[in-house]
Structures are given as C-alpha cells and as structure tokens.
Design goal:
This protein has about 120 residues and is mainly α. It has five helices and two strands. Helix 1 packs antiparallel against helix 4.
C-alpha cells in the first residue's frame, strides 16, 4: 500500500459514521439504505461517506439486479494494521527496556531510610 492509499484509509477511519458503517459491513453485505438506517443523516450524506470508504479501498460496491450491495474489503484494513504493527514493535521494545530498568532498580539494596 502506498502512502496516498494509507492516508486515505486513516482519513476514512477518522470519522465515527464511517467506522460505524465498517462495523456494520463486518457483519455482512448491506445496501446503501440498510447502511443509512441507524444514522440521522441524509441519503446524499451516506453516499458521500461511502464514496470516501470506497476511495480508501475499504468498501466495494457490487451489483445484484436493482440492488447495489456494499461489502467490506478487509485487505485495505490489513495494510493499515501492518503499518500500526511497525510502531507497536517499537512501543513493545521501549516497554521492555523500561521493565528491565525497573527490575534493576528493584534489585538495588535498600538503605536504612528505605532509599535505593
């Protein structure tokens, strides 16, 4: 995934309505009207949210006669997860060093005042 696609994914995920739509699609395909049901927003607003999700590669619209079902494309989400995991490894390394330092401090002999 290139940088522009990654930017599009995180931009799409920044909105709570779009995250809720993705959560609904994680349960299975849904039409645009089915996706709009829980929201007190206009149909054009729902369509704009879906367009952002499509451009990010997170949602794919199909065609089933008169119905245009939407489905989650988990592959784009996986690329975002991989990007996050690179930072998770750095955080875990930092926590590991902090744990080692705390273990060293705990192992120091205590003085009569309780100071180490």
């Amino acid at each position: 995934m290139n940088t522009n696609q990654l930017d599009a994914v995180f931009s799409a995920l920044a909105d709570p309505t779009r995250r809720a739509m993705l959560a609904r699609l994680a349960q299975g395909e849904a039409s645009v009207s089915e996706l709009a049901e829980p929201f007190a927003i206009s149909q054009p607003a729902v369509s704009r949210h879906l367009k952002v999700l499509e451009q990010a590669g997170l949602v794919v619209k199909g065609r089933d006669a008169q119905r245009r079902p939407c489905r989650l494309d988990i592959e784009a989400m996986g690329a975002a997860q991989k990007w996050i995991e690179t930072y998770q490894q750095a955080w875990e390394a930092n926590f590991g060093r902090m744990d080692a330092l705390l273990d060293e401090l705990k192992a120091l002999p205590t003085t009569s005042t309780g100071d180490k």
